[in-house]
Amino acid sequence: MRVRAEALRSDPEDWALPHGMSLPATAVRMPRVWAMLGHKAGDNSQVLALAEALGWPFEEKRFVYKPYELITNLLLGPTLAGVVKEKSSVLGPPWPDLILSAGRRNEPICRWIQRQAAPQRVRIVHVGRPWAKIERFDLIVTTPQYRLPIRPNVLHNKTPLHRITAERLRRDAEIWEPRLADLPRPFIAVMIGGNSGPFSFDRAAAERLARQASALACACGGSLLVSTSARTSKPAIEAFLGAVSCPAHVYRWAPGATDNPYFAFLGLADEIIVTGDSMSMLAEACATHKRVHIFDLGEGRYAMRESVAAAARREPRDRRWWEGWEKARWDAFWYRQMMRFGPQRLSRDIRIVHRHLVDSGLAVWLGDAFPQGQPLPTLQCVARAAARVRALFAEELRTASPSAADNGDDIEADGGRLLWRQSA
Hints:
CATH class of the largest domain: Alpha Beta
CATH architecture of the largest domain: 3-Layer(aba) Sandwich
Shape: globular
Number of strands: 15
Structural class: alpha/beta
Helix content: 25-40%
Strand content: 15-25%
Number of helices: 13
Largest sheet: 6 strands, parallel
CATH topology of the largest domain: Rossmann fold
Radius of gyration: 24 Å
Oligomer: single chain
Strand order of the largest sheet: 3-2-4-5-6-7
Distance between the termini: 16 Å
Order of helices and strands: EEHEHEHEEEHEHEHEHEHEHHHEHHEE
């Protein structure tokens, strides 16, 4: 039975309930959760994936940052000085019990909240790579590309967190399927990212992707469902469109768009191609349990595939060492040097995730064949992360059944937030 109350205070004896009702002795208050969202779609997707997997109602807090936030964050520690407050979510009591966050820019905000809420305990769960000391976080959910050390409060997942569920794919696919009725099946989804670290998605890479994706679609008499992203440059999009030679529907990402077919394309696709720059898109594609092809942004010595790059480096060069820099952005060049000579915490190596996806059978490089008779494995990253976060509240919740969030014994207040649960 669900009942809505008018107000809630932290002390169960003060909870305002309808006349004639009282809380059972076994009732436990659900954690108040804030999901901290910033300017990176990949970070936001992982934070929301974890928040949704917990099964606890949560509030989204969105932030816009000042251009000089790096300076204030480094010099001032826990602070809001790097936030454009008039464009960001309001922060104030009641303070959360749990903060889910990702990205360097949100770390000072989370620690500021923690300081303001004292003596209330606020747990911080960070997704990805932290910039502050590891011991300052209650839990860090990371992936191999960041190469973090083994610590009790660090959970090492093989892939990033994802928001893929069968229901989400089915729901969005049903909306978009009638709009694509004129395109021949099967559908091959093409998810396009952009530049990433030492790898460039330029016009040449875009044309090569279009040719290879078109060849795959033409071979089976199908068509392409193409979705760009916030990081896809306009020249790369135009180059891709100019080289496509099969039926296709192309969605150009736009900020604030409410009709993004990303999940619909994943749900409708028979096979999926993902550019190798985006670990989040690769994880989401693999979570569909469909055949996933990784597109290598580079060629020769600039290839993502280490075997290809190593073979190219062994070949004699037919030009001077400085020629060919036009194939890599300057920032990509310096990123390569940082990976080779700088401290690991300042860079990431996404090739480690590529190796795992290919070695485990979750994906193949575009152009390679899938192993015959080998079933596609499933991803467990989200379930593992949610279980570790719930463990932080084991004493408070006193429940061994996290799936029982809606068991008919819940009371709601504060605009529908789940307040207490009948414990097992």
